Amino acid sequence: MSHSIAALQRQSALDALDHRVLLCHALGVNRIALITQSERVLTEEEMRRYSALVRRRLDGEPIAYIVGQREFFGLPFEVGNAVLIPRPDTELLVELTLDRLPRDGRVLDMGTGSGAIAVALAHTRKDADVTALDVSAEALAVARRNAELNGARVTFLHSDWYAALQGAAPFDVIAANPPYIASGDHHLSEGDLRFEPVGALTDHADGLSALRTLIAGAPPHLKPQGWLLLEHGYDQAARVRALLADAGYTDVQSWRDLAGIERVSGGRVA
């Protein structure tokens, strides 16, 4: 049985956006081509590829992992199951970092994953000295490819948090989107999170242990009045502010994402 692009649109079990993305991926065409070639009949091989992608999506696999890419801060990023899928909420962390990064400043992205934060910073601010680190060698390989893909100049380090920074020059800003979901949280077994690397999602504890490590370890690696900016869970802002204040940070505050949720908290060292 032959299927045209238009017929598949009508018959798809997926929502319209998922169908369009997967069909573009299966055919190797863009969205405009789907419109201009709506009566094109798929070959048997094209139909086989599309059907296999649909099955993966219906099984719950995230679209970003199926097509191997996600846009973040207006840039394309390679993603796979070694890294978290970049999310729009995290763009707030990038914007706050850019606002606090002086000309020719130094910035550190802790736990870079796909490299989304570091690459977005380096691409936007060509003058900046951007360093990114991660404990996962697989994640760093993805991040390096994303830096190359987007023409971004980033220094990558294989490090368990601050371990590889001994002797490094201090930074104007340290930004991090660490694991902050508590062990046993029901979200870990729902939706896209089922497919993402668990170690990048949860600290296997109360959701605050990585945040505590970052807060305690940052001061020696920040310039005077340097900022530490931390993304966290929707209900963690007050606790993160308390941790920052107790550790002696000043100007402690939280910022809301587009949904009105306190998504990033931070403070300055003396």
Salient structural properties:
Rossmann fold, alpha/beta, 270 residues
Explain this structure to me?
The chain is α/β, with parallel strands linked by helices. The chain folds into two domains: 5-59; 83-268, Vaccinia Virus protein VP39 (Rossmann fold), CATH 3.40.50.150. Helix content is 36%, strand content 20%. Strands 5-4-3-6-7-9-8 form a seven-stranded mixed β-sheet, sandwiched between helices. Strands 1-2 form a two-stranded antiparallel sheet. A hairpin with a 2-residue loop joins strand 1 and strand 2 (75-78). Helix 2 (16-27) packs across helix 4 and helix 6 (91-100) packs across helix 7 (116-124). The model has no long low-confidence stretch (mean pLDDT 91). Belongs to the protein N5-glutamine methyltransferase family. PrmC subfamily. One of its GO terms (biological process) is methylation. It catalyses: L-glutaminyl-[peptide chain release factor] + S-adenosyl-L-methionine = N(5)-methyl-L-glutaminyl-[peptide chain release factor] + S-adenosyl-L-homocysteine + H(+). InterPro entries: DNA_methylase_N6_adenine_CS, HemK-like, N5-glutamine_MTase, PrmC_N, RF_methyltr_PrmC, SAM-dependent_MTases_sf, Small_mtfrase_dom.
